[in-house]
Sequence to fold (235 residues):
Amino acid sequence: AQKVTQAQTEISVVEKEDVTLDCVYETRDTTYYLFWYKQPPSGELVFLIRRNSFDEQNEISGRYSWNFQKSTSSFNFTITASQVVDSAVYFCALSERGFGNEKLTFGTGTRLTIIP
Amino acid sequence: DTGVSQNPRHKITKRGQNVTFRCDPISEHNRLYWYRQTLGQGPEFLTYFQNEAQLEKSRLLSDRFSAERPKGSFSTLEIQRTEQGDSAMYLCASSSTAPDGLLNTDTQYFGPGTRLTVL
Fold:
């Protein structure tokens, strides 16, 4: 069965510091997708990134970057120069390439607080 | 796109009552998912539709839960004889399967959720 572990329950950093959120996954499939979602206090899950299992290139989008390492089954998320608006709960999720159903398995989330 | 919408946003009910939630997906999205999120946890998959067909249900979905997507557009999730343990945020997501070579593009976009409180 697939599983996603986010060992960091809560992280607090001072504004402008860099912060890395860890995600470790388990799957028996060779084809799968990994996702990161942000859940601000308003509650709506906001899609941040999707990465497929064949693409191990790291990705950067503005202050956000993602490091995907199949060898360690990890998909970590780094925010550089953090801002107060980054405060939210961040979820890592895994989708196996089943027979048409890409249901997501989520981790328990990491609550990130940026201190002004 | 106006995004995924859900109604109501909040629902308070007494134990034993029936409740129904509605989800309107992003237009032309053929897949629709329901998840449940309890406090301090990540969303958990409940069920999934492709067009009007309900293709999978989680073990979490007891016989008190039923979901429909009659015309392949909006969906409803009904909980009968609610229990206090049903208190949670119910999230809806939609996606589009657009073939892209060997891989389908299928990113799920979530609505704001319906928060259910059972007294």
